[in-house]
Automatic annotation (TrEMBL):
PANTHER family: PROTEASE SYNTHASE AND SPORULATION PROTEIN PAI 2. It comes from Microbacterium resistens. It holds the Pfam family FMN_bind_2. This is Transcriptional regulator. The lineage of its organism: Bacteria, Bacillati, Actinomycetota, Actinomycetes, Micrococcales.
Length: 218
């Protein structure tokens, strides 16, 4: 992803928020045959406060991704959607697509069997915890032999990125009144209604307004 300084995201807390809210990641790697993109749930490492992530792939995706042998790219896609030129007012303009995305790249560490089991257990617990009757990975009728057979068909990894590219393109290059109108249009009923994108725009816009106000007081 080509970076644009006007749209760059650099705050680690914000990057962690986007990753945590959008765990369904695209993993891009390769072998001698070329590139492969796979899709898996990837979570922030609960034992770290940086951008280290943990996950797993099913065999033989580990081989076609070159897992542990070469650089792996992880793409976390946040809210995104169409923005009509009609929302800008009576000015010359063209459509665009607003979006938030975080790219992490590095050579992942391959986890041991027991570490991978903990990652898999944590992954299940992460998504089960809000259900009225959460069912853990080790809960009956799952027996230990069943769980360990499943684990054997996966490869767990931990990735601490050596390259990070994050972009928040949310109409920051437009006047405040235009931004407010785009948020309004995305929040309303219509063909391109997108409450999640509207909320992301609102968050970013209010942060800019607050920073602008603080700078004005200095």
């Amino acid at each position: 992803m080509r970076q644009n300084p006007s749209f760059a995201m650099t705050d680690v807390a914000e990057l962690r928020r986007v990753i945590a809210a959008n765990p369904w990641a695209t993993l891009v790697g390769g072998d001698g045959e070329g590139l492969t993109a796979s899709h898996y749930a990837v979570l922030l490492d609960p034992e770290r406060d940086d951008l280290t992530v943990i996950g797993h792939v099913g065999r033989p995706d580990d081989r076609v991704l070159g897992l542990g042998d070469r650089e792996l790219l992880l793409v976390f896609q946040g809210p995104h959607g169409y923005v009509s030129p009609g929302w800008y007012g009576d000015v010359a303009s063209v459509p665009t697509w607003n979006y938030v995305a975080v790219h992490l790249a590095g050579v992942p560490e391959i986890l041991s069997t027991e570490e991978n089991l903990r990652v898999l257990e944590g992954l299940v617990d992460h998504f089960e915890r809000d259900l009225p009757q959460p069912r853990g990975m080790w809960a009956p009728p799952n027996e230990e032999s069943f769980v360990r057979r499943l684990e054997a068909g996966t490869v767990g990894f931990r990735l601490t990125p050596t390259r990070v590219t994050a972009k928040r393109k949310l109409s920051q290059n437009k006047p405040d009144d235009v931004i407010e109108n785009v948020i309004l249009e995305l929040s309303a009923d219509g063909a391109h209604a997108n409450p999640a994108l509207a909320a992301e725009m609102r968050r970013a816009h209010e942060a800019r307004l607050a920073a602008r106000a603080t700078a004005g007081l200095e």
